[in-house]
Amino acid sequence: MSGIHCDPVSRLKVTEQDRAYMAVALTLMRQAGVLDKTGGPFGAVIVLDGRILATAGNSVIQDNDPTAHAEMNAMRDACRKIGSPHIAGAVLYSSCEPCPMCYSTAYWARVGKIFYAAAWADYADLFDDSNIAKDMQFPYEQRQVALQQIMRHDAQKVWDEFRQLPDRARY
């Protein structure tokens, strides 16, 4: 996946167009969290090749789906629109610093850059995403959610079968 990340110089550039896309994310943030109350106040915009590909707000409450974060909703929509699990080179504008799930999804989707407005510290009294990031650094036996491996040998057999498929999924 090398080559999809931005060089250090491009990390410093913020254009008026970047601010305009972020303004859309902030509008979606307010719409989702304050007006429609579909979830927390989070909004996201995906831009590819200079055009808005997808926009979304948080819909965790509306959808009863803990993964329905604004960034996840926008990335799902963007990927469907282009017919690929990858949106290589896309820019994600998020009203807030992405949680570990959203960052990981952006990584897997090959998003090239993320701009965010509010930092985790700005809303830690309401949503503490830093706790998840810290928890994932602990050994399994010390994590909040218990992890225990079972039936590894059986799973390895399936992986061996999958390796033999000439037309196996690649992403």
What does it look like?
The protein is of the alpha+beta class and 171 residues long. It contains seven helices and four strands; from the N terminus they run H-H-E-E-H-H-E-H-E-H-H. A four-stranded mixed sheet has the order 2-1-3-4. The longest helix has 20 residues, at 16-35.
Helices and strands in order:
Blueprint: H1 8-12, H2 16-35, E1 43-48, E2 51-57, H3 60-63, H4 70-82, E3 91-96, H5 100-109, E4 113-118, H6 129-135, H7 152-164
Parallel strand pairs: 3-4
Antiparallel strand pairs: 1-2, 1-3
Helix pairs in contact: 4-5
Placed side by side, the strands forming the largest sheet appear as: 2-1-3-4
N-to-C CA distance:
11 Å
For the sheet with most strands, the description reads:
4 strands, mixed
Radius of gyration (CA) equals 18 Å
Number of helices: 7
Give helix and strand order, one letter per element, not per position: HHEEHHEHEHH
Proportion of residues in extended strands: 5-15%
Helical content stands at 40-55%
Which structural class is indicated by helix and strand composition? alpha+beta
Shape designation: globular
Number of strands: 4
Mean pLDDT: 92
Low-confidence stretches: none
